[in-house]
Design goal:
This protein has about 130 residues and is of the alpha+beta class. The chain folds into 2 domains: about 1-40; about 50-130, Nuclear Transport Factor 2, Chain: A, CATH 3.10.450. The protein is about 40% helix and about 20% strand. It has 2 helices and 4 strands, in the order ααββββ. A hairpin with a 4-residue loop joins β2 (about 100-105) and β3. The longest helix is centred in the N-terminal third of the chain and has 39 residues, at about 5-40. The protein is elongated, with a radius of gyration of 26 Å.
């Protein structure tokens, strides 16, 4: 074989090797994207395993509700029982569900969600939101 043919064969072998590893990497990436997409699609129907179920409060009338400040204090106090004392409690967002009569307090560092009754301030549920890291 000529020198040119040997060089072309070497280039072709290297290209096939690169193509194989690129294909394997892309297949793994696409499978990961598909799995997380399916998981997030099923989060509401996971029976509370991925995302805690939203419960029902006692009243949907906002004038009967406690203030957001009072509800936040209740949520912070309740969360302190679940986390290490050295962790900083940092509120990410407040989700008010008027039609359900509840307020959800969602915390940043540990993905905890605390659902409170808007009227009584009772803690309805403390759960971990796995959907946030998926």
């Amino acid at each position: 074989m000529s020198n040119k043919r040997l060089q072309q064969a070497k280039i072709l072998r290297n290209f096939r090797k690169v193509h194989k590893y690129t294909g394997i990497t892309l297949v793994i990436f696409f499978l990961l994207v598909a799995f997380t997409g399916l998981t997030l699609g099923w989060k509401k129907h996971s029976s509370g395993k991925i995302l805690p179920k939203t419960l029902q409060g006692t009243s949907t009338k906002l004038e009967d509700w406690l203030s957001i400040y009072q509800l936040e204090n209740i949520a912070n106090n309740r969360l302190e029982a679940y986390i290490d004392k050295s962790e900083i409690i940092e509120l990410d967002r407040i989700d008010i569900r008027k039609n359900k009569g509840i307020v959800k307090y969602i915390f940043k560092n540990n993905n905890y969600e605390i659902q409170l009754d808007g009227v009584t301030g009772d803690v309805l549920q403390v759960g971990v939101r796995h959907s946030d890291w998926i």
